[in-house]
Specification:
The complex is a heterodimer of chains A (about 425) and B (about 900). By secondary structure, chain A is α/β, with parallel strands linked by helices. Helices cover about 45% and strands about 10% of the residues of chain A. The longest helix of chain A is centred in the C-terminal third of the chain and has 18 residues, at about 345-365. Chain A is globular. In chain B, the strands form 10 sheets. Chain B has a 7-stranded mixed sheet, with helices on one face. A 6-stranded mixed sheet of chain B has the order 31-33-32-37-30-34. Chain B has 28 helices and 37 strands. Classes of the chains: A alpha/beta (about 425), B alpha/beta (about 900).
Amino acid sequence: MATALTPVLTRYWDQKDSYTVAGYERNGGYKGLRKALDMAPDDVIEQIKASGLRGRGGAGFPTGLKWSFVPQGDDKPHYLVVNADESEPGACKDIPLMLASPQQLIEGMIIASYAIRANHAFVYIRGEVPHVIRRMHAAVRDAKANGYLGKNILGSGFDLEIVVHGGAGAYICGEETALLDSLEGRRGQPRLKPPFPAVAGLYASPTVVNNVETISMTSQIMRYGAEWYSSFGSEKSPGIKVFAVSGHVKRPGIYEAPLGITMRELLDYAGGIREGHKLKFWVVGGSSVPMLTEDHLDAPLTYEGMEEVGTMLGTATPMVFDDTVSVVRAITGWLDFYKHESCGKCTPCREGTWWIDQLLHRFKDGEGKPEELDLLNELCGNILGRSFCALGDAAATPYPQALKLFPQEFEAGIHTPANEAFDPMASVVFPGVKTS
Amino acid sequence: MSTVAPVAGSSAPPADAVTCTIDGVQIQVPKGTLIIRAAELIGIEVPRFCDHPLLDPVAACRACLVEIEGMPKPQPACAIPVAEDMVVKTQVTSEVADTAQRGVMEFLLINHPLDCPVCDKGGECPLQNQAMTHGNGSSRFDGTKRTFAKPVAVSSQILLDRERCVSCARCTRFADEIAGDPLIELFERGAKQQVATGPDAPFDSYFSGNTVQICPVGALTSSDYRFRARPFDLVSTPTACEHCASGCAIRTDSRNSTVMRRLAAEDPEVNEDWNCDKGRFAFKYLSEDRIKTPLIRDPETQEFYSASWPEALDLVADKLADYRGRTGVITGGRLTRDDAYAYAKFARVALGGDDIDFRVRASSQEEVEFLSNKVAGTGLGVTYSDIESSPMVLLAGLEPEDEAASIFLRLRKGVLAGSTKVASVSSWVSPGSAKLQAVVLAAAPGDEAMVIDALLKQSSALSEAGFEVSTQLRNKGAVILVGERLAASPGALSAVAALAEETGAKLAWVPRRAGDRGALDAGALAGLLPGGRSLTDQTARAEIAQAWGINESDLPAEPGLDLAGILEALTTEQEVSDETESAVESADVEASEEQEVADEALAEDSAKAAVDQIAEEVQLGDDEPQEPRIDALVLGGVDIRDVPNIELMREALREASFVVNLETRLSGISAYADVVLPVAVDIERIGAYANWEGRLRQFPKVNPEATAQTDGRVLAMIADEMGYPIGTGDVVEYHNELDSLGYTTGERVSFNSVKPGSAQTPGSGEAVLASWKFLLDLGMLQTGDDYLAGTRRPSVARLSPATAQSIGVTEGDLVKVSSDQGTIELPLLLTDMPDGVVWVPQNSPGSEVYATLGDAIGSTVRIAGGPKAVSDAASADAEVSA
């Protein structure tokens, strides 16, 4: 039996005013907050722990546990920072969540801030989406006008201010400590850990950094209860997840479903591969995780299920590539991205992306040398696990898996440009334009 | 290094020791020791670039990856402290670590230009060296390298080659963490990441040269040294810095006996790994325009002619013998302790007087007593370690960043670590005070004593912060650092002494010059014999007379004149009557004749006594007119611009019947000298300075071929000629003699407390003048160092907003500061400072206070708006605010 879709966060996106307080309240919004404010903060943390919610930014760290790391009674201000710097190639879930249901995020932020005892919360939004930044600004004003922000929220005695901050266009600022540096007005580069943000984060004070989807979901968990939430998904990956399916499917888009759904099911919901084409490969967690093929379509989309097939659930935003795609060209594009976005702090990532990108371009252009296939593998090995943060790991991930799955395409790259073997126009999907 | 631990094998393990295993070797280190340092202790050098023991770890370069048991990925040894039972495998025993390190090394070189043959760093380059030890012989990279335009001048003296940079961020972290001048920063990202400065904000930090030294590649080079030498052609000599009283350890690199560059040498007790740019880059004076032979002024033409040493010594000895007992000795800051001792001994033994002073600056009798009573011959007192962790360091009349740069760095280290707090009695919050997060107790010049007194009495006049300071001063380990400038403020030194007494805070005196503490210890001050001995103390006199091989009665009976006294004596006395002069001459003739006889009779003592007796008779000549108290001058290392009243000094020099100047280059003093005797600079001599701590800083001769004589040798030769030997003149002899004298055990010079003075009250259009010298200024040891001069702080006048308003000027306008002697005109920078006070730099371009305004610091000067400033002032202002 096919896994049913379970829209929760995305449930009211089809309503015109879903982003307003009025629209949100009409659908039961801010009920979770009322419940939370009636509880002791520690009980809220317990509730989130009990729900089994894991971080939706990619790493999947248990959210309640993260909140509980914040030292209490330490006389320091605490901060909640929402990581809305969604920049991973393929990932597109936080942006629509903020655009269509920002109040849900705000409700979650109030709950989380209440739980960790923060009176200041921040949303750090990637700079390339000014419309989303405007939407969040308006949503915060709206919430404040309705008494959900500011002093003495809903008569609880709890105060909270939310600051919406636009980034300046650096992928690295999605790394939580680089984000904190950027938010403090510095150049965004990852910080040495320890200390971890829970101890010394923003302005050297205890800070929780959570993803948009994670925080949004806490509002629903508070509203419907931990048991409700954990009844979905698997034991290790409880709950519901927003899956953003993109690429060569008939109906790309956002599908909210319990964890454990398979890619085959998601592909069905998305209408399957484009007419006349076959699935070549797919990447489940953004470009930073190893790619998969048809062989893995029945693996459950859970943290542990994806680990079993040698990849990571990551952001759970599958990109689907059909047989028109040159895998060499695809990963060269990603490497262009990583090279451009490498922050420069550590040697393996800064220099390694510079080098492997050049080598990949050779294969893309049909000018690779046979010995460079191994060299590339070795160089990726010299980056993976050696870099300062996960950006380097991400850059070193695509090639080894691609070579393993499609060696013949790289061998062809020794003599044939990818664009000759695979017409790039064939891969392009223009809305309304039928491609063969 | 601060983090390095007692090694295995040392007697007792520290209480908080942890035991770990590195490459199979078990080792015990203090908790918190980083793996990379622990490995050093067993002789394993893990490669590194970003790591520096005095900078916070960043783990950016990844060159030091090692394997730690239980961790899935190799970890940076520079950032992880060892933990109990940790098992670490470095490249020595771990394939993973070795591969990781070689991989990083290969990456580091792909965008590096590999231009070692033309790189200043080649031959002493950590990248080059570690590429050999931990890299592969050749590169597999055959792609396109990233290129940049080069070099980029981040300041006039620091040049940046971005292609060579490995982004270790040592320089930017140094600028931020150590110097407190975050004027360079990493810009851009990825392989295009680069060090840069902000627009119109060059890297004008007093400590910028350190970045060249700690750069592990040739990315940062100095304009001065660029392309001038190869490290393997240089001879390195460990020396001591002569530029201030910090006493920094220096490495002087020379080629063919010419100094090519100077570096900070490591001395954990003193300057750690750093020094200031003056100490690093100011050394042209060592070789330029040196005097090579004695110069004698031709009585006819009044021009100097080059003379032989015998001729010059004969003349000087003859003349000084004539003026014996009436010769003033003034020494400057470049003297080593041993040379200062020679002057001290020369003055008493050969010249038969006690008219000697080393304080060529604003000074007072109160200071003579303060120094003689509290500082001279007290040995090592407050140390750098003390000020790094002190509940309160009170600065009085001292701006460490400008006047003793290594004190500034050490204080800042303590402040940032939270182990030290700083307060400063000053007229405004200087950039240095701001970087030290100092509580500034504002005092107009002259009010210092009152402010210090308020701290003592915890008076209600104190602000909350001031009260806190006065409380913390009472905590164990508190320190008061007194700058030499405080002498100009009547009662301030007395107030400081009382405050130290009352609170129990330790007291240290911080002069500006390298030689001053040594000169004080050596007794180059009227009334003060070597080792803090009082001239009037019987024990002291006996000890000194014995050591010097003279009769106690040969020592002057009463304290002589200090600088002010000498100048006064020379400029206020009547013309010498012929009668007296001839009396002196005849007495001397008589004496020398008698001496000849006496020599034959081997009755030297009695002959000398006879001479003295005659001289005394002449001196005490019962009838008017009296002979002049001072007639001749011996000056060594004195910059006339340091004398507050330069005109008075000039008059004194003109009035003096005979002036001898021991000097390295012609100066404002030698212009008035009858004889100039050339002496050695530091690279041509051995010697020792005593720094502000009282720590001896010995240095060897850098230039083995140098033949220049030390001041001490020249004085000994003169003394020999005069017949009053003071020794062979050998530095080691002076040194050992002074050391064996030790410190006084008798009565010290008494210290008579002076009542607190107060600042003058300026009238309308007037202000009290405050001033001190910038680190980089027109000082004579900085001449010729143009790249260094490019990073000087701009000359500005500072006024409080209210005072500025009272004369109708706004920021950037020119302000005229005038005394009866002249006017200084500088752009205004509004400053939070007491009303009615104006501050200008003491010896900077366009602002030479003594030369232009005379002895005006602490006095009322006129202030007025100048013509409206155009672009110049505006840009100077922009520089300052930046």
